[in-house]
Structures are given as C-alpha cells and as structure tokens.
Amino acid sequence: MGAKSVTILIVEDDEGTRELLRDACAMTGYEVKTASDGQKALSILRTENIQLVITDINMPRMDGLTMLEKLRKEDNQTPVLMLSARNEKKDVNEGLRIGADDYMVKPFGLEELSLRVAAILRRSESKEVTSERLSYGPISLDDSIHQVTFGEEPVDLSPTEYRLLKYFLERPGRVIPKETLLAAVWEIDFRSDSSVVDTYISYLRKKLHQQGFEGIKTIRGVGFQLLADK
C-alpha cells in the first residue's frame, strides 16, 4: 500500500497539535482528515475509508477511549495509535486492553511518529492467513483459524497479543530481548523507551498464567522467555 492510498484520521482537540500532526502526516505523503473529538471521529469512520487513526485520549464531548471502545464494538478494526500524557498510564493500559494498536507518550519526535505510523500500516497490510499450528506446554495456536487455546479452552487475544504470543511460540525456551520484540512484533527498529512490550507481556500473563502455569518469564536485564514448565 503506497502512502498516497492511505488516509489517516487525526483526532485531537488542541488545534495547534492537530495541525502539527496533520502537516507531519501530509508531508510523508498520506491523505489526512481531522476531528476535534471522538464523536466527530466516529462520524468520519462510519462513512469514509480510513486506514489509521491517531487519537489523543483526553478530549471534550467524547474522549479517545470512549471512541475506541465504540469503534471496536462496531467491529471496526481500523488500527489506532493513541497519544498520551505522561500521567495517563492507566488510560493507556485501558486503551491497549480494548484494542489500541500502539501508543506514544507526549512529547515525542515527529520522526518517531512517522516510523510508528509506517510500522502499524505495514502490520495491517501483512495479515496473511497460514496453516501453521504451534503448541508449547498447555498453549496452542492455530493460525489457519486465528485461535489460541489453553488446554482445551479458547483464549481471547487482541491482534497484538496474538502476534506477541506467536513470536514466543515460534521460539520456545529462547530468551528474547525487548528490543528484538519491538522490532519483530511492533516493527520498531530504532531506540525507544516505550514500555509497550512490558504492558503486553502483563496482558498475556493475565490471560495465560492459570492452573499453576507461569511460563512467561522475565530474565532481568536481558528479556523474556516462554517455558513449558509450570
């Protein structure tokens, strides 16, 4: 998908920030639409073909989290990149839980924004269906039907949680550095202080650490590891 065929929706109540983001995306070659709150954004998303949403969290009328929740309830899987202030960690976690694809903490550089946008768009383009089936310990993943099970019970994972788990299942027992996961799962191959990996590791643990199984290990100072043992 070339940049000219991509339309990005910027949702931001601050006019100066909204225009800055609009100009940054337009300079990269994307078509850009803007909205000043979540309610206006939903109206655009329901009527136009949008490939990516970049949204602030705190906005009047309808905030970014409410907009995202309504979007996902309508089964609209348009990728969403959230922008948050440093004191909005709980809101970020909630956004990731209900279906955001990534987040950035203000202030951030426009170069990093451009790289994040490109990475999200690449991921949304490359959702290929394969017949691969992976199993390790009590966890199984069937890529042909996009299903994860723990024992015999299905486990509901977000798209990002699914990609992260699949990466671990393809490398059982191997210690994987955080930087490697950022590059492979989020396609972030530059220096970043993002805590998105740690956040999603915690989500996987909440869903998969059950019945005595605690196989997703943190190797301090190195990375993470999936083990089959309880």
TrEMBL record:
Q: Name one GO biological process term.
A: regulation of DNA-templated transcription
Show where the OmpR/PhoB-type domain sits: 131-228
Give one Pfam family. Response_reg
Known InterPro entries for this protein?
CheY-like_superfamily, OmpR/PhoB-type_DNA-bd, Sig_transdc_resp-reg_C-effctor, Sig_transdc_resp-reg_receiver, WalR-like, WH-like_DNA-bd_sf
Which segments constitute the Response regulatory domain?
7-121
Keyword Transcription regulation appears in the UniProt entry: yes
Q: Which terms in the GO cellular component ontology are assigned?
A: cytosol; protein-DNA complex
Q: Name one GO molecular function term.
A: transcription cis-regulatory region binding
Ordered alphabetically, the record's keywords are: DNA-binding, Phosphoprotein, Transcription, Transcription regulation, Two-component regulatory system
SUPFAM superfamilies according to UniProt: C-terminal effector domain of the bipartite response regulators (SSF46894), CheY-like (SSF52172)
**What is the name attached to this protein's record?**
Unannotated protein
- What species was this sequence derived from? freshwater metagenome
Print the organism lineage: unclassified sequences, metagenomes, ecological metagenomes
